Amino acid sequence: MSSAMPSALFSGVFNLIFNGFQKNTAPARSVSRTAALLLLLCLLLGVPSLWAANEPPAKEATLEFNFRPIFTFRGNYAGATPEVRSKRAYERLNRLTPEQMQQPIERVSAVIDGLPAIALRSGDIVLLTVLASDLDPEEKLTLNEAADRAEARLKEVLHTEQEQRRPMALLKSIALATVATLLAFSLLWMIRRAAGFLVGRLQRSIDHEDASETLRWAHHAWLLVQRIAQLLMGVLWLSVGYLWLTFVLSCFPVTHPLSEKLGGFLLGLFELVGNGMLHAIPGLVTVIVVLFLTKTLNDVLANFFDGVVEGRTKVAGMHQETASATRRIVSIVIWGFGIAVAYPYIPLSNSEAFKGLSVMFGFMLTLGSAGIVNQLMSGLVLVYSRALSVGDFVDIGGTVGVVSEVGVLSTKIIDMRNEEVTIPNAVLVGNSIRNYSRLAGERGTLVSTKVTIGYDTPWRQVHAMLVTAAEQTPGLRLTPTPFVYQRGLADFYVEYELFAYMDKPLNRVPTLSALHGNIQDQFSLYGVQIMSPHFMEQPKNNVVVAPEQWHAAPAKPPADAVANAAAGQPRADI
């Protein structure tokens, strides 16, 4: 019956009385009064039983003494709840004298509230009473079996209490605990000294001049090495402390259950880790096999792309300059597919920790992907447009130098001052790129310099002097031969530009400096002034070159050039 029944009965009685008084006839009022009295009497007799029937069941209470469970109370006894019964039983056990603890435990059968019960007593003191309502339906124990188990546990508790109070047993426990404590402190001291010795020895090996490459790299991660050493030492200290506490608790009869709990926890932890490792072995084997096959496929394709880069393999539509970038893209796709296949087999891949990391990395990638994707796409544009490659001599927005690296996000250029300039790929795509090496081939990089000379100097002589200066300059190639172009005929001078080839574009500045020095020496040697003439007034004589000076040294004229010029015949070399 539900808890709403008492209120429903009260409501019914009230309605009956009220409706009876609403009628004006005397018989009706009499019947109403009689019915109301009967219902009220039934209500007064039935409500207490209804409320008692709807009381919540009593909570369980386990009696523990000296860290040992003895019995679990589940039923009420003489108005006492299980908690009160457990508390009273504990107080009776705690008041027992050593003589009373030595008395045998007796069992007394009784009937309480029409149900059988068994009382366990020591002498005249009833330690606890096992009721039929205390039995657990899931355990399916009889009353005698439950009493037997409670009696056995009581005997064990009383025995340990007696052992704990014996002076010799107590002294033995204290001695064993003292020895264990000294041994634990000795182990902790040895662990600390060993860790300090190993760390110091490793540091001296790293700082030694003849250290290997691995140890030299460890020098940069020395702080990490120290933290790992401290972590290992802490784990060892905690292990020693845990074993010490377990042993010390086992030395005393009273605290022996705590020692068993600590040992059980450690064994349970080892069992859990061991079972986890055993269950993880098939998944790990699958992951290793998948990653091995992925690496094998990646190595095969890498060998193919290496052949394209080195020119051993020819594939239509694939160039040597783009093979490296294509290899990286294909490698990323292959490894991404392999990791996606292997991920479900990784231990703890379905745990909340992995899910949280996935969400965090996805959030970070979303926030920073805009700029990164822009740089990545710009890098792909540079690579597949073959605008530049490593070793090219380029001019990008005024930055002149040799390309040392074409990266995914940026390109590095070493300029004439031996400075490394890093330019984001997005900036390169937005600027014009002058590549001086793309069309050079085997000829080398072409360099040039300009000089302006007046009309009174023979142009053949200027050509010869400039070529001679280039041939005398270290760093410039003799083959192909340097050559000169006349870039313009201005009002007062002729503009000459000397072109030559060089193998090392990074040495452009010192090579040009040496070339300029040789040009000055050549012009000084043959008495030609490097200065564009600007006249304040027109000279009396025309500023021209006489025919006999057309092939002035170091120019080498043809054999009949001078004879033809003296005879007034047309010149064949013009």
Describe the overall structure.
With 574 residues, this protein is an alpha+beta fold. It is 56% helix and 15% strand. Strands 9-8-7-6-10 form a five-stranded antiparallel beta sheet. The N and C termini lie far apart (130 Å). The relative contact order is 0.04. Mean pLDDT is 77; it is low at 1-10, 20-32, 35-55 and 568-574.
Task: Write a brief structural summary.
This protein has 15 helices and 13 strands.
- Strand ordering within the main sheet: 9-8-7-6-10
Number of domains: 6
Just name the CATH architecture of the largest domain.
2-Layer Sandwich
Share of residues in helices: 55-70%
Our measurement of the CA-to-CA distance between the termini, rounded to an integer number of angstroms, reads 130 Å
Strand count, sense and closure of the main sheet? 5 strands, antiparallel
**CATH hierarchy class name of the largest domain:** Alpha Beta
Outline the fold blueprint.
Elements lengths: L4 H18 L3 H28 L7 E5 L2 E6 L8 H13 L3 H5 L2 E8 L2 E8 L2 E7 L11 H23 L1 H41 L5 H8 L1 H30 L4 H55 L9 H23 L9 H33 L8 E4 L2 E8 L3 E6 L4 E5 H5 L3 E3 L9 E10 L4 H13 L11 E7 L3 E10 L5 H18 L35 H7 L7
Antiparallel strand pairs: 1-2, 3-4, 4-5, 6-7, 6-10, 7-8, 8-9, 11-13, 12-13
Helix pairs in contact: 1-2, 6-7, 6-8, 8-9, 9-10, 13-14
What are the main properties of this structure?
574 residues, 6 domains, five-stranded antiparallel beta sheet, three-stranded antiparallel beta sheet, 15 helices, rod-shaped, disordered N terminus
